Amino acid sequence: MVAIAKILIIDDNPKYLADALPLYGYEVEVAKDGLQGIKKLTSENNDFDLVLLDVMMPNMDGWETLKAIRQNKKLENIPIIM
Fold first, then answer.
1. Which string of DSSP letters, residue by residue, matches the chain?
2. Is the pLDDT confidence value at 45 over 80?
3. CA angle 71, 73, 75 (to 5 degrees)
4. CA dist 27 to 3, 15, 60, 73, 76, Å?
5. What is the layout of strands, in order, in the sheet containing 6-10?
6. CB burial class (10 A; 0-12, 13-18, 19+) of residue 50?
7. Any idea of the CA torsion for 33, 36, 42, 44, to the nearest 10 degrees?
8. Residues 2-14 pLDDT 10s
9. Mean pLDDT of the region 21-45
10. What pairs with residue 6 in β-bridges?
11. Could you tell me how far CA 72 lies from the centroid of its own chain?
């Protein structure tokens, strides 16, 4: 089965979304904080269609993560839902 879209969930507690979204045909990867999320987004396998971003996380919160993503020219057009 081909995924509808590839979603990166950046959340320290992604349990429900990470379990539910694949049931609807989405491919999901998880990062537990903003630092891991940015690492995944800047990897060579960055083919994410959407980022679901939590606000309250350890190490780097959602607002700092959003700012870092938007400052990267390669990532400036990826849709982000906070």
1. ---S-EEEEE-S--HHHHHHGGGGT-EEEEESSHHHHHHHHTSTT---SEEEE-SS-SSS-HHHHHHHHHHSTTTTTS-EE-
2. no
3. 85
4. 6, 15, 24, 24, 21
5. 27-31, 6-10, 50-53, 80-81
6. middle
7. -140
8. 879 999 999 999 9
9. 94
10. 27
11. 15
Both tokens assigned to 48? 């994410």
- pLDDT band for position 1 (50/70/90)? low
Mean pLDDT over each residue of the chain, to the nearest integer: 93
Can you give the pLDDT at residue 3? Answer: 78
d(CA 71, CA 82): 17
pLDDT for residue 7: 96
CA distance 39 to 25: 25
% of the chain residues with pLDDT over 90 = 80
